[in-house]
Amino acid sequence: MTAELVRGQNHPLPHTRLEIRVTAGAPVMACATLADAQGTVRGTEWIAHPGSPTLPGVEVSRQAAAGLRFHVDLEAVPAQAHLVRVLLALPEGAGGPDRFGATAAPFASVTSTDGTEIASFTLTGLDAESAVVALELYRRQGAWKVRAVGQGYAGGLAELFGDHGLTQARAFAAGIQEAVARHLASTVQIPRPSTQDGVRIRSEGLPSSAAPGPATAPGPAAQSGATVPQPLAPAPQPAPDAVPQPAGTPGPGTGGTPAAGGSGGTGGAVNYTHPGRRTSAPPTPPPAAPPAEPGRPPRPVAGDATGWSMDERLYNQVWGMFEDLARAVASYRSAMDFAESRMDQELDRVLSDPRSRIGGAGDAAREAARAKHDQLAAQAREVLDRDLAQLVAESEVVEPALPAAYARWDNPVWHAYRVPMEIPMALRLGDVHLPERADLRIPMLVRLPLERGLWVDSGRSGSEAALMMDEAQLRGLAMDTAVAHAGRLLAVYPPGEFTVHVIDPAGSATRSLAPLTASGALAAPPAAGAAGVASVLGKLTQRVDLVQMAVRGGAAESLPPGLDTAEQLLIVNDFPHGFDDRAVTQLRYLADEGPAVGVHLLMVADREDASAYGPVLDPLWRSLLRITPVPDDHLADPWVGHAWTYEPPAVPPGSRVLFQVLEQVAAARRSWRR
Questions:
Q1: CATH architecture for segment(s) 450-673
Q2: How do residues 230-254 score in pLDDT, each as one tens digit?
Q3: At the topology level of CATH, where does 3-182 sit?
Q4: In this structure, are residues 354 and 302 in contact, taking their beta carbons and an 8 Å threshold?
């Protein structure tokens, strides 16, 4: 099982013949150094670099590129060398970024020679640095381990080599830069063209977003080589949130925080697996079905995007559909703006000439301007309708094929539900749509493990649906929405790898919590009163502290035997009722530090209720992804500027599907504990 490392963490290496694969958002160059037991590099003969790419047991690339490979044979490393450092640096004078903070976070993975991934590390937190020690392979009591380092140097390779004890480090670093300049690899990709009949073609690559991801971030399969929208932190209300973008394959724009997943057993080591992460090119998708008639676009096929599995292909296809809809509507709106602007200009010319203001000539000019406007508008609408029809056809094929984690609650896949054995790539949080075609709903997917908490806004956010409901009805619906999200999270994790806690200080959510409490899916009864709030927050805060210390100290195996290493979700109802200042501080701490070590928040709150705290809580609201219990156009698309309407995932009225799924989850957990 792959270990996704965080800075300072180590992991044993089961093989001695390895590949280290690096992906980055810009060309980087590779170096490697050998060091003795004290960490000292004894001379330039212990450095592999593009000008001299081989050492005993180590080989690096001669070129700078966005994708690199290091070949390592630890058995061939000299006995006096106890340490192999993997170094990355930005080429100088190549027209690219001069600091890592200006590009996507590099991603490094250690694999066996057959391609099996052993450990991975995302180098987040870099800014002015232009050289970095990514990983260390080191001997310990006759065995080899890998450690995630991520130590950067603003002075580049010269400062890095000098720090490692190399004399004449500046001249040596300049020689490496010169060697790289002779072999700099091109990383420019030509966008894929459209076909002659106007059918857009999805690109083979998977550009990634920064980030959650819901949205990092990694990204959806693009069409015509377009880049995906980059996620933004949610602005204070009423400013719209950003549509969560997928983290995707490590590469341009990644940089999400690795989360600690549960290994399933109490007292076991923390499992840092990030499901579905890959570092090499995925296989070619299955061919599309032949066109129904000559000259028409091919029939849509579920899973025709790139990916390693059907789940990954469907995930990428869904985000491709999101991009297609965003692009088609943006083009239509631009065409309509042009038509309006052209008509206004022509009417202004008519009115500015006294000779044509009155009489038949003026009327004819005005009619011609309006006719031209109507012609342009009709052409734009025709193109939009064609694109929308294609997307509707694709949605009708894709929606029934979605796995449970991506499917609506009314999808028949839930009737055949079985507790999974693996964590899926993503989770459906609802749907998004645009007013040009409100019935065309695109699944809103966020990557797992969650990199941000969730906030179900129980206040009157300004949407028409919220204003039509009374306060009690809206709060109840918000809690129903939160329970549906929690139930889906429990359903898509393997037994014992996800735990849900509830804080309900006044006991007002008893009806909404019935599916969780009656099924036995909760770890403990909902906590009530100030004492219950303090108890739950204290336990989760302590868990975050313990796991953070274990991770930073590279001693995950030393966690207390009774510690639940599963992912944790805390549902908080009626905040800030029952919260004193200490509890508020603990909640903010969990929101900031919890996701990195597997503790997540699901807040059900009206921001106005906490207005007495003033700006103190602004960072809390910004750290959470705001969703609503009723349709609301609060999600912003920073790519083309659309305001997307979010639709929450509703369980069909009268359906027992959620309760039946949670019963299976609870039964599987009881069996797992035996």
A1: 3-Layer(aba) Sandwich (3.40)
A2: 333 333 333 456 666 543 333 323 3
A3: Lipoxygenase-1 (2.60.60)
A4: no
